[in-house]
Amino acid sequence: xxxxxxxxxxxxxxxxxxxxxxxxxxxxxxxxxxxxxxxxxxxxxxxxxxxxxxxxxxxxxxxxxxxxxxxxxxxxxxxxxxxxxxxxxxxxxxxxxxxxxxxxxxxxxxxxxxxxxxxxxxxxxxxxxxxxxxxxxxxxxxxxxxxxxxxxxxxxxxxxxxxxxxxxxxxxxxxxxxxxxxxxxxxxxxxxxxxxxxxxxxxxxxxxxxxxxxxxxxxxxxxxxxxxxxxxxxxxxxxxxxxxxxxxxxxxxxxxxxxxxxxxxxxxxxxxxxxxxxxxxxxxxxxxxxxxxxxxxxxxxxxxxxxxxxxxxxxxxxxxxxxxxxxxxxxxxxxxxxxxxxxxxxxxxxxxxxxx
Length: 356
Ligand SMILES: *Cc1c(COP(=O)(O)O)cnc(C)c1O
Known about the structure:
The protein is α/β, with parallel strands linked by helices.
């Protein structure tokens, strides 16, 4: 830290993104990206014509994309906020809705960015432990009198809450914002998008990074009643009004038009997930019942970190977290069936070697 940086960031622990090593070509199953390219319509939309307009600022209101997303979810444009990745919505929400009196709560094992925002903005965050089976006990979130953020499905477990459970959290915390982070919802969980009109304190956060094959374009969005969307826009127009670049805006709009393509991709990922889980079980792995595009798995005989390193040496990247409660586990992104076969072959080989 330079002597110029504010002391208040001295102890800030930053978010650690999944590694992107360049020393060899890896099968990348460590950051939950889609294995499929964007739709042909998206590629087409990124035209020479649009590139030649890069001298001009993009539309700060994201009008066209906002209207399209509203249409997709049966809502009004006033219910949609567009952000530079969903991380930006989360950041803005912590900034907008939290302070000394309005504190935050989230599961102690969840998306690693939540505690980082909490620290960055100096917010008191109550981190609520999961149950022993890694599920979230929704009863822990009733009458909390704090803002709440829950990933549904949760990361890195892939486990879900039901809509009635989330509704009970919403109704028992009426004076606080309940953020449901639906980064993985398209792979098998129930979305809260349909609850937006019913609950003024609900903020649903979604991303193009996982199910819409656009992690590299940085696009996210959020759905809520107008007042909450207006608040997020207040923060956006006080920090970075042109938060979405021109190319991402047109790509995002084209992706809405090719919704059927993405649904098909999700179906393939779900099929590959079920296939891989079954094969992993045959190899002696235990897995949680994932409704996302990753599998959280442990092998009772092989140390998690060791397994991760051995897979890496064989050219397969998965994610390993060193924190105590989950250090036996690997989080394996679901890729194509071919990629999963490579993973399964490598895992089988490692297990054979280790058993010797
Ligand atoms: C990937 C992810 C995000 C953020 O994704 P963006 O690329 O910033 O849209 C948010 N929440 C969870 C739980 C995620 O896994």
